[in-house]
Amino acid sequence: MINKEIFNEDSIVIDENLNNKEEVFAFISNYFVNNKYADNYKEIYQGFFIREKEGSTAFTDGIGIPHSKTATIKRPGIFILKNNIGIEWDSLDDKPTFFFIALAIPEKDAEVDHLKMLSSIARKLVDETFKKNLINSKNKEEVFELISKVEIC
Predict the structure, then answer these.
(1) How many domains is the chain partitioned into structurally?
(2) pLDDT score at 120
(3) Residue 118: CB partners within 8 Å, gap ≥ 6?
């Protein structure tokens, strides 16, 4: 189970209408700053772009796992955004991305926290039933039920 300090029902937004990568990163960065995961909006926002330059964080079937790792992030966090509009994201299957599982990773202890969170979520996304249920979720409660059961190990 994921610790409620890292992820809870307030960490989920469904039915948003963002148009591009900049808007997605701005929305996610605002969440992390407003909820005290990070102190500096500009740094966490730029952190998402820095990571994206290393390679796309979009997987397949409309799912992406953008993440930012900076000194401004004080505690790890997970934020889920389900956008109504598919966004070009250089995904592995060349399909638009609309379901984002965003990670905020403190620079301190980053390698351990980052790898644990990222690998645990990525492993679950290989499970076709889990992925289908996540993509087809209709509300925050359904998303929370699925994500909260992911074991971070």
Answers:
(1) 1
(2) 77
(3) 65, 67, 103
Q: Tens of pLDDT along 85-110?
A: 999 999 999 999 999 999 998 887 65
CA distance 108 to 67: 15
121 Cβ contact list (under 8 Å, min separation 6) = 65, 78, 101, 103, 150
Note whether 18 and 85 are within 8 A (CB). Answer: yes
Q: Is the pLDDT of residue 53 over 90?
A: yes
What range does the domain containing 130 cover? 9-148
Distance CA(126)–CA(19), nearest Å, equals 27
Which carries the bigger pLDDT value, residue 149 or residue 23? 23
| Residue reference for tokens 């971070």 | 152
Tokens of 115: 């790898």
Does any domain span residue 4? no
Q: Which residues pair with 81 in a beta bridge?
A: 13, 100
- If you average pLDDT over residues 8-18, what whole number do you get? 95
Please give the residue that has the higher pLDDT: either 33 or 111. Answer: 33
Query: What's the CATH number where 133 sits?
Result: 3.40.930.10
